[in-house]
Every structure is written in C-alpha cells, then in structure tokens.
Amino acid sequence: MRDIIPIIPLLFAVGGAQMFVVQVVASSFMGVALFVLSRTVRNTLHSQEGTQDDQWRYDINRMNELRKISALYRVFQPVIHLLARLNQRAFAEQMPEVRREMQAAGLSRSWTPAEYVARMELIAILLSPVYIYLCIDMMGNAGIVLALVATVVTAWFLRRRLALQARYRLLQIKRRMPFLLDLLTLLMEAGSTFLLALQEAVDEFKDHPVGVEFGRVLAEMSMGKNRTSALESLRDRLDDDEITGIVGAIIQGENLGTPLARLFRTQADVLRIKRTQRAETIAGEAGVKMLLPAILVMAATVLIILGPLYSASSIRSSWIRCPKRQPSPSLAVPIAAKCLKSTTTWFISAEVPRTRSR
To answer: What confidence score (pLDDT) does residue 10 get?
Structure first.
C-alpha cells in the first residue's frame, strides 16, 4: 500500500490519453461493483426452497411458502425467527387472539401468530431510523425519546390494523352470506346435491371472502371430512357470534334430519332480520353521536356572530366610563413645566413667520 500511494499523483500528471484509460478502468470497476451488488440482492430476494429430509417436515414446507409470498421474510428470516421466539415467551397469552384475528382476516395459514407479530415489530424497527432522524432534526437530542415512542406506536397501529382487517372481513361475510344461502336453497330445491350446490355457490362468489371460506369447507369435505366437522371448522375459524349461531343451527338441523334447503332458507331470513336490526341500531346511535359535534358547531357559530359585537361594545363602554386620570402632586410641577415649555416653543415658532412677512 505504501508503494502504491506515491504513484497516485503521477496518474493526474499524465496526458489526456492516459487519463482516459484511467477513467475507463474506474468505470469498469464501478460496473463490476454494481453487477455484484445487484446479483447479491437478487440472490437474497430469490425464493430458494429448503430441501426436505427423508421424513417430510411441515415446517420446511411452511417456510418455503412464506419465502414465496413475503419479501420481508426472505430478507430478514433469521431476525423474524428470533423475534418470534421472544414473542412466544413474552406474549403467550395473546397468541390465541392473534391467531383468531389472522384467520378471520384471511391471511396465509403459513404464518404463525408469533411470526406475524414479529413481522409487525420488524417493520416498526425498520422505520425507527427515519423517526430518529426527523425527531432529532426538530427537537435535538431529546427527540430520541419521541422517536422510540413513535416506534412503539407504529407496532401498536399495525396490531390494531390486523384487528380492523379481521372485523371488516367478517362484516363482508355476514353481508353476503344470505345471498349464498339463497343460492344453495334454489339449487337444492331444483334437485342438486349439497356438494354440487356448494361448488356452484363457491364458483359464483369466488372473488368474495364468503366464497373463500366456503371454498375451504368444500375442500375439507372433498378430502374426506364429514359435513359437520367442516362446518365446525368454519365456526372455529371465524369465531363470530352470528356465524356461530347460524352454523350451530345448520348442524343441529342436520342431526335432527331437517331438510337442508329449509334450513338454508330459514337462516338466510334470520341473517336479513339481523342485518335490518343492526342498521336500525346504527341509525338510532347516529343521533346521539352527532349531538356533541352539533353542540360544538352551534357554540362556534354563536361566538363568531356575537364575539365582534361584544368586543366593540366593551371597548366603547371602557372609553365612556373611564375616569380622567389626575396626576399625583409629586408629578404636578414637572408636568406643568413641560407643558409650559412646549407651549412657549410652539408660540415662538408661530410668530417667526409673521415677523418675516412684515
């Protein structure tokens, strides 16, 4: 290295041709470096499937599936596994609730609850440098505390987003389920079997969450599961009061021998009644919820209209009712002398132009 350093100034002293060669060599090195960097990123993001041993393992198949569907998992797989082990120990009581929300939200079954929570935490950690930079730029060194708070709040918002996503998907399923049950009723009354009717209904609603969920029921029944077990899996997967009641009524009616077409028609009517009742409840709560904003708007309007009038009247009354201020005896002599001096100066300045004009 010491032998190369003295040669560097000579490179800048050579002619134009030699400088061109240096630029070509430097550009070549830069191109090779960019190629190596892009190849490294490509190999990192490439989904390489893990190899199975002599005995088939579900965890390897699950990780291969996650590497295909999640770029974040491909890049940060060891970090996600480390955070998942920590979450499994620290938040063991909350993992069943996270699993229920993941199933209701329709997320991939390859994710475990601890790994999905680790994914949220990793996103918050990756955003923390941006928070630190912005907070230190605005507040100085004290902004580090605010940046840490923002990181924790980001992880909480991601967790809250999962709950809202699960709630919204359940609402979509409950809104569309009466139409699916009506379609099943029509097909079965026309002479179709339950499996064929369910297949037709799933094809009709394949782009909707209700079609996805009943598609899983159909797949489980096709793999050998009986009808009751498949419906119970649907009930446990969604874990909603209304859907639990509907599925329970269907299972009970099937055990008692009630025709499925009549059961589906009855449950569709029950769902519509509950939907109407839910709409009436929301409409009744709207008036109460709008009361406080209406009061605030009225108060702001009154202040905007009466505020200037009150200000003008108060200023006018203060000018009228304000008593004349009497100077104190200690200040009477200096004030009088100052007034006399100013009056004399004004009189002299007014008399000078008159004498000149004469």
So the answer is: 47
Pair 208, 172: CB distance under 8 Å: yes
Tell which of 256, 286, 316 closes a domain: 286
Range of the domain at 206: 169-286
Q: What is the DSSP string of 245-313?
A: HHHHHHHHHHHHT--HHHHHHHHHHHHHHHHHHHHHHHHHHHHHHTHHHHHHHHHHHHHHHHHHHHHHH
pLDDT in tens, 2-43: 554 454 454 445 455 556 665 666 677 677 767 666 666 555
pLDDT tens for each residue of 128-175? 999 998 888 888 888 888 989 999 999 999 999 999 999 999 989 888
Check whether 99 has a pLDDT greater than 80.
yes
- Take residue 110 and report the two structure tokens written for it: 């390859």
CA 172, CA 208: separation in Å to the nearest integer? 8
CA-based nearest residue to 208, from 245, 175, 182, 242: 175
Tell me the whole-structure pTM to 2 decimals: 0.65
Are residues 214 and 282 part of one domain?
yes
Residue 127 within a domain: yes
Burial group, residue 111, by CB count within 10 angstroms (0-12, 13-18, 19+):
buried
Domain shared by 174 and 161, yes or no: no
